[in-house]
Amino acid sequence: MIYVTRRATFNAAHRVYNPKLSDEENFKIFGKCSSPNWHGHNYILEVVVAGEIDPATGYVIDLKILKEIIEKNVIEKADHKNLNLDVDFMKGIQPSAENIAVQIWKQLVNKIPAGKLFAVKLYETENNYFEYKGE
Ligand code: NI
Predict the structure, then answer these.
(1) How far away, in angstroms, is 47 Cα from ligand 1 center?
(2) Labelling 55: which of 10, 119, 125, 130 has CA 20 to 30 A away?
(3) What is the per-residue DSSP string for 44-109?
């Protein structure tokens, strides 16, 4: 088994908050991510596909194809968008990095043509990343 990773980036705004709480209470729980006028992150996404090497190509998966799948299903939908308002796969879901990683997994898991999706890693800041492996 070998693991192939494709990296992609997108910039998006969000507001992580509980609508039942005041702005002040939200700030205590969610900090800057609760800003009522939104704020943004430069997200870094890593998609890891695991599989056997195809002896005909030497590849697990053609990275050009993986790139296109990520572009079409994640980046085009989320880049320079508002995760609360604009992104179909985040509709009604609190846009924490944990939830974004899970939703990106769901976007991709049935679309990988060779090998299988092993992990989605989402960096929200330089120091924080979130990893989902489907369970
Ligand atoms: Ni934030």
Answers:
(1) 21
(2) 119
(3) EEEEEEEEPPPTTTS-SS-HHHHHHHHIIIIIHHHTTEETTTT-GGGTTS---HHHHHHHHHHHHT
Q: Is the pLDDT of residue 131 over 90?
A: yes
At 135, is the pLDDT very low, low, confident or very high (cuts 50, 70, 90)?
A: confident
CB 120 within 8 A of CB 132: yes
What is the set of active-site residues? 33, 80, 124
Distance 7 CA to ligand 1 centre (A): 20
Residue range 62-107, pLDDT digits in tens? 999 999 999 999 999 999 999 999 999 999 999 999 999 999 999 9
The structural domains of the chain, with segments of one domain joined by +, span 2-132
Ligand 1: centre distance to CA 109 (Å): 25
